[in-house]
C-alpha cells in the first residue's frame, strides 16, 4: 500500500494534502512525499512514523 493511501486511511491527512505533495514533486522537489507533508504541516513526525510502520508491516516484512 502506498504511504499516501495509509495516511489518508488513518485520517492523518487529506487527499488534497497528498496532491499538494505530489504537485511539489512534479515541480522539482526531490524529497519524499512524507518529508513534504511534514514540511507543510499536514502531518506530524509521529503520524509519519506510524504510517511507515503500517506500510512496512503490510508489505509482509518483519
Average predicted confidence as pLDDT:
95
The portion of residues forming beta strands comes to under 5%
Number of helical runs? 4
Q: What's the helical proportion of residues?
A: 55-70%
Poorly predicted regions: none
The structural domain count equals 1
- Strand element count: 0
Order of helices and strands: HHHH
**Beginning-to-end CA distance, first to last residue:** 16 Å
Features:
62 residues; mainly alpha; 65% helix; 0% strand
Note the topology.
Blueprint: H1 3-9, H2 15-26, H3 33-39, H4 45-58
Q: Quick summary of this structure?
A:
The longest helix is centred in the last third of the chain and has 14 residues, at 45-58.
Give your account of this protein's structure.
With 62 residues, this protein is an all-alpha fold. The protein has one domain. It contains four helices and no strands. The protein has helices spanning 3-9, 15-26, 33-39, 45-58. Helix 2 crosses helix 3.
Amino acid at each position: 500500500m502506498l504511504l499516501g493511501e495509509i495516511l489518508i486511511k488513518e485520517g492523518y491527512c487529506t487527499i488534497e494534502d497528498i496532491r499538494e505533495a505530489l504537485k511539489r514533486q512534479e515541480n522539482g522537489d526531490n524529497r519524499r512525499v512524507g518529508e513534504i507533508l511534514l514540511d507543510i504541516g499536514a502531518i506530524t513526525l509521529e503520524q509519519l512514523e506510524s504510517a511507515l510502520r503500517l506500510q512496512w508491516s503490510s508489505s509482509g516484512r518483519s
